[in-house]
Amino acid sequence: MQREQLKQRILSESPKFISYLKELISENRFDDGEALEISLLVIKNGPESLTHKQWCVFLENGILRDKYTDKCERCSEHIPWSNMYSAIFVNKDYLCANCNFFENKVTFHN
């Protein structure tokens, strides 16, 4: 079920997702060559151009492996694509920007 929901989110938020995908590629976050090739196709032709098989490989071996979190671990809201890279790879806290700010604010004042 998560695959289909993620696919629909990618399709409905395509420009924002493509920006996230470019960030993943520029930071060399893909270790699966086929998923990387499909990512480049998504950037070039859009996610709606993928076949069913490409979607399966892209989601399972690329995005769902370690490059996506469904919801913020604190407030349970969707993490925007613009904040996804920081939440997973920089801060490693799986928090949206608002919750990350609040958590850091609390930490600095204690």
Characterization of the model:
The structure is a single chain. The protein is an all-alpha fold and 110 residues long. It has six helices and no strands. It has helices at residues 2-12, 14-26, 33-45, 52-66, 81-90, 97-109. Helix 2 crosses helix 3 (33-45) and helix 2 runs parallel beside helix 5 (81-90). The longest helix has 15 residues, at 52-66. It is globular. The model has no long low-confidence stretch (mean pLDDT 93).
Relevant terms:
mainly alpha, 6 helices, single chain, 110 residues
Topology:
Layout: H1 2-12, H2 14-26, H3 33-45, H4 52-66, H5 81-90, H6 97-109
Radius of gyration, Cα only, in angstroms?
15 Å
Along the chain, the helix and strand elements come as HHHHHH
Number of helices: 6
Proportion of residues in extended strands: under 5%
Total number of strands: 0
- Helical coverage, percent range: 55-70%
Distance between the termini: 41 Å
Global structural class: mainly alpha
* Low-confidence sequence ranges: none
Please, what is the average pLDDT?
93
Largest sheet: none
> What is the molecular shape?
globular
